[in-house]
User: Which sequence fits this backbone?
C-alpha cells in the first residue's frame, strides 16, 4: 500500500471551477471540520447560493484573505491539508488568473502530481496549454486533467472521448511525462471523491482514487548531499552526548537526494570548485548513528579525509559531473525586475550562493504554444533559455535528471529579491537552444 | 529522471518526511542568517520547533536564544515548563515583558482585558532590541486562512508587516533569506504540519509538554460558548456560574482569552484519539481572539503579529 505524504498542486482559473473542485475534494474527503462548515453554510445562505435550492458554495472552502473576498480574486498560492486512510496530502492551490506562471511554479515545483482543470464546454484553451506547458517544464511526474462541468454537457461520453484524445495529444506535445483525464462535476461531486450516478460509461478512477494510488516521486540519479551546516560542537554538546566521544566531532549536515549514502562509500567532495576524494566514516540520522541514508533524509555525514569542507560544498557518491562555470538554463521570471545580458546576479544552487553573470538569452518561450522566439530580455512570468557564467565552478545536473540538483534560484544581489527559478539544461547546444520562431512576442518586444 | 514507486522509497512515513523537511529549513535558516532567535511560548508547536532545532544541530547545543513574549497573563504551569525547558537545553532566554509596557504606559490595556493583540508591539521591539534578523515560529498553515497563504520564510518590513500581495515565491527546497536592511524574516519550519501531525510526533518522540494540555480538574465558567478558567486575569461576571470541570487546552495563549475543552484525555495517545473524533478546528474551539471576525488573523499578521 502506498502510504506517505503526497504533494499535489492544482492549476486552473476561477471560471473552470477550480475553487469548487478543491472545496468538493476537501468536503467529500471529510477534511472540513464542523465549525468551518458552519461558516460556509452561513455565508452560502447569506449570498443565496443555489437560488431556489439552497446549497453549499464549496468554493468558499478556499476563500482566503479579505482582499480576495472583496475583489473576488485569488492572490496567492494557498496550502491545504487532508488525510485519507491511504495517505496524507499537501495541496498547493495555485490561482490561475494573476501571475499564473509565478504561482504555478511556486506551487508545482515540489509536486508529485498536478491537477489541471478544463471546462468541458470549452475544451483545451490557451490557458490549459500554458498550465500544461509549465507543468511539463517543471517535470511534474503525474498530470491529471479534470474535465469539469460535465453536467453542463449532459455527461456526453463521445464529447469526453474527443476531449481526452485532444488533451493527450497536447500533453505529449508539451513534454508531459504522464497524463490522466477524468470527467467530473465539482458542483455535484461526481467522480471527485464519490463516483456518482451520472456517467455509468466512465470506468476509470475517481480523482481521489487516482490521487491515493499514484506513486510518490522519488528521484534515482546520483546520491548527493549539499552541505548546509558544518557541525562542530567543540565541547558545547547537547545533554546526553558523551564529551569524550564527541570531543573532535566534525560532521556535515544536509539532505540526501538522488540515491543512498552508506558508511564506507567512496565519495567525491566538491569544495570551493575543486574536487577531492574521501570516504564516509559515519552517518547520523535524527535518532543516532545509521548505516545508510536515503533520498529525502536529513542527516550528518562524517568523512575520513581531513578536507576543509564548508557550507555549500557538495558530497557525491559516484561520479561527479565535471564542475563548470558555464551552463544554460530554462528560467521562469518571478519578479517584475527584467533580466538581460550582462546583468550580475547571485545563483543559489544546492546550499551555495555564487556570483554569476547573464551571458545571453537564447530564446523566450511563447507560453501559448511553447514556440521559441528571440528576446533581448525577460520580464515577469516569462520563460526563457539563458546562458550563465558563474564565479566558481558548480556541480550542475540536468533538471531532467534531478529536480534537486538541476534547479536554482536567481537572486538580485542588491536587495535579495528572488528574480527567477532556473532549470539547468546541460545539453542546450547552439542548435538546440536557438530561437526558431519568426516573430518577437509583444510582451517581450515592449 | 527516474521515478519509482513509493514502495521502494524510504520516506514513506509522513512524520519522517515532515521532520526531514523541517530540519532542512532550520539548517538553511541557521546558515543564511546572522542573528536567529526562536519564538518560544511553551505551547506545543514552539516545543516541537525547539525539538527539531536540537535535532538539526545535534550533537551540538542549540546555538540560538529563545524569545518569550510574555503577556503577563500566563498559566503558572506554562512558565514553569518554559524555565525547565530552557534549563534542560542550556538555552539563553530573552523575555519581552508586556507587563513592563503596561506599567510604564507604553501600552494600554484593551477594554476587554485580553492581551494577545498587544503582543505585536512587544514582539517587534524585542526583535529590534536584540537585532534578530530572523525568528523561528511555530505557525502552521492548517491553523487559519491567512496562515494557509504564508511562505515558510516570510519577509517582514521595518514595521513587522506582512504583505500577502508581495510574497517571495518559494520553489523547490531552495530558500532565499536575503532581505533589505531593517527588515526581518519569520521562519516557519513546521508550516506543513497539521495539528494531528504535531500530536503524533509528540507521541513518537516522547516530547514533554506543559500539563495544561492534558485533562485536569479546574474551576471554570462559560462565556460566549467557551470554557474559561478562573484565574486572576479571568474572573466570572455576575451570573456566570463557576463549576469544576475536567478540561484540557488545545492551544496555549493569553490566559484571559484562551478557552479550554471538556476532555478526559490525560495522555498523548488519548489526546490523539480525542482529535480523531473532534469536529472543531483548533483555533475555533479555543481562541476568542480569532473569533471576532473572519479576518482576525489576517489583520493581526499585517500588523506584525506572529
Assistant:
Amino acid at each position: 500500500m502506498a502510504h506517505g505524504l503526497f504533494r499535489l498542486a492544482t492549476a486552473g482559473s476561477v471560471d473552470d471551477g477550480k475553487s469548487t473542485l478543491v472545496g468538493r475534494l476537501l468536503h467529500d474527503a471529510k477534511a472540513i471540520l464542523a465549525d468551518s462548515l458552519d461558516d460556509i453554510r452561513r455565508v452560502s445562505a447569506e449570498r443565496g447560493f443555489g437560488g431556489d435550492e439552497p446549497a453549499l458554495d464549496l468554493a468558499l472552502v478556499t476563500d482566503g484573505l479579505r482582499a480576495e473576498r472583496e475583489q473576488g480574486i485569488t492572490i496567492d498560492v494557498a496550502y491545504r491539508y487532508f488525510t485519507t486512510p491511504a495517505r496524507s496530502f499537501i495541496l498547493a492551490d495555485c490561482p490561475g488568473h494573476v501571475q499564473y506562471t509565478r504561482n504555478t511554479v511556486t506551487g508545482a515545483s515540489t509536486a508529485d502530481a498536478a491537477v489541471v482543470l478544463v471546462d468541458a464546454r470549452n475544451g483545451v484553451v490557451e490557458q490549459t496549454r500554458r498550465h500544461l506547458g509549465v507543468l511539463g517544464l517543471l517535470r511534474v511526474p503525474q498530470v491529471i486533467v479534470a474535465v469539469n462541468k460535465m453536467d453542463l454537457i449532459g455527461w456526453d461520453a463521445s464529447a469526453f472521448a474527443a476531449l481526452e484524445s485532444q488533451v493527450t495529444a497536447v500533453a505529449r506535445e508539451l513534454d508531459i511525462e504522464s497524463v490522466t483525464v477524468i470527467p467530473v462535476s465539482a458542483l455535484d461531486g461526481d467522480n471527485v471523491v464519490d463516483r456518482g450516478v451520472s456517467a455509468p460509461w466512465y470506468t476509470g478512477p475517481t480523482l481521489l482514487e487516482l490521487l491515493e494510488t499514484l506513486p510518490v516521486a522519488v528521484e534515482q540519479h546520483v546520491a548527493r548531499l549539499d552541505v548546509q551546516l558544518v557541525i562542530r560542537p567543540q565541547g558545547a554538546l547537547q545533554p546526553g552526548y558523551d564529551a569524550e566521544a564527541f570531543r573532535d566531532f566534525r560532521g556535515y549536515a544536509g539532505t540526501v537526494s538522488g540515491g543512498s549514502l552508506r558508511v564506507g562509500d567512496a565519495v567525491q567532495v566538491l569544495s570551493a570548485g575543486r574536487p577531492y576524494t574521501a570516504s564516509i566514516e559515519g552517518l547520523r540520522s535524527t535518532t543516532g548513528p545509521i548505516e545508510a541514508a536515503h533520498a529525502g533524509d536529513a542527516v550528518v555525514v562524517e568523512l575520513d579525509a581531513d578536507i576543509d569542507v564548508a557550507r555549500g560544498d557538495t558530497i557525491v557518491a559516484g561520479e561527479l559531473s565535471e564542475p563548470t562555470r558555464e551552463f544554460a538554463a530554462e528560467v521562469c521570471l518571478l519578479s517584475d525586475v527584467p533580466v538581460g545580458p550582462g546583468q550580475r546576479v547571485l545563483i543559489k544552487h544546492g546550499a551555495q550562493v555564487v556570483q554569476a553573470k547573464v551571458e545571453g538569452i537564447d530564446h523566450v518561450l511563447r507560453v501559448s504554444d511553447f514556440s521559441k522566439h528571440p528576446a533581448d530580455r525577460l520580464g515577469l512570468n516569462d520563460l526563457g533559455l539563458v546562458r550563465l557564467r558563474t564565479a566558481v565552478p558548480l556541480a550542475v545536473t540536468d533538471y531532467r535528471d534531478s529536480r534537486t540538483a538541476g534547479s536554482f534560484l536567481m537572486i538580485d544581489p542588491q536587495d535579495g529579491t528572488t528574480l527567477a527559478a532556473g532549470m539547468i539544461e546541460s545539453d542546450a547546444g547552439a542548435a538546440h537552444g536557438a530561437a526558431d520562431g519568426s516573430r518577437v512576442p509583444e510582451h517581450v518586444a515592449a | 529522471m527516474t521515478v519509482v514507486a513509493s514502495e521502494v522509497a524510504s520516506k514513506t512515513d509522513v512524520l519522517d518526511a515532515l521532520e526531514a523537511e523541517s530540519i532542512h529549513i532550520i539548517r538553511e535558516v541557521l546558515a543564511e542568517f546572522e542573528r536567529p532567535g526562536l519564538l518560544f511560548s511553551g505551547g506545543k508547536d514552539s516545543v516541537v520547533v525547539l525539538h527539531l532545532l536540537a535535532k538539526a544541530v545535534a550533537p551540538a547545543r542549540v546555538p540560538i536564544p529563545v524569545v518569550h513574549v510574555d503577556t503577563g497573563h500566563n498559566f503558572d504551569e506554562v512558565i514553569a515548563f518554559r524555565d525547565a525547558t530552557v534549563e534542560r537545553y542550556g538555552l539563553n532566554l530573552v523575555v519581552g515583558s508586556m507587563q513592563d509596557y503596561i506599567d510604564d504606559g507604553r501600552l494600554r490595556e484593551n477594554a476587554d482585558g485580553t492581551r494577545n493583540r498587544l503582543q505585536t508591539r512587544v514582539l517587534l521591539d524585542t526583535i529590534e532590541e536584540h537585532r534578530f534578523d530572523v525568528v523561528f515560529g511555530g505557525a502552521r498553515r492548517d491553523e487559519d486562512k491567512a496562515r494557509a497563504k504564508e511562505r515558510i520564510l516570510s519577509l517582514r518590513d521595518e514595521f513587522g508587516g506582512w504583505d500577502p500581495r508581495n510574497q517571495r515565491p518559494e520553489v523547490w527546497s531552495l530558500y532565499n533569506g536575503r532581505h533589505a536592511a531593517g527588515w526581518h524574516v519569520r521562519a516557519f519550519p513546521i508550516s506543513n504540519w497539521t495539528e494531528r501531525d504535531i500530536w503524533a510526533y509528540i507521541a513518537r518522540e516522547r516530547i514533554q509538554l506543559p500539563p495544561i494540555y492534558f485533562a485536569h480538574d479546574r474551576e471554570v465558567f462559560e462565556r460566549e460558548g467557551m470554557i474559561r478558567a478562573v484565574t486572576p486575569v479571568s474572573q466570572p461576571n455576575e451570573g456566570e456560574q463557576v463549576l469544576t470541570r475536567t478540561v484540557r487546552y488545545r492551544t496555549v495563549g493569553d490566559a484571559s482569552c484562551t478557552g479550554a475543552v471538556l476532555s478526559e484525555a490525560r495522555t498523548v495517545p488519548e489526546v490523539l484519539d480525542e482529535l480523531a473524533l473532534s469536529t472543531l478546528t483548533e483555533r475555533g474551539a479555543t481562541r476568542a481572539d480569532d473569533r471576532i471576525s473572519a479576518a482576525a488573523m489576517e489583520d493581526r499578521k499585517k500588523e506584525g503579529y506572529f
The mean pLDDT of chain A is 87. The CA atoms of residues 108 and 195 of chain A lie 27 Å apart.
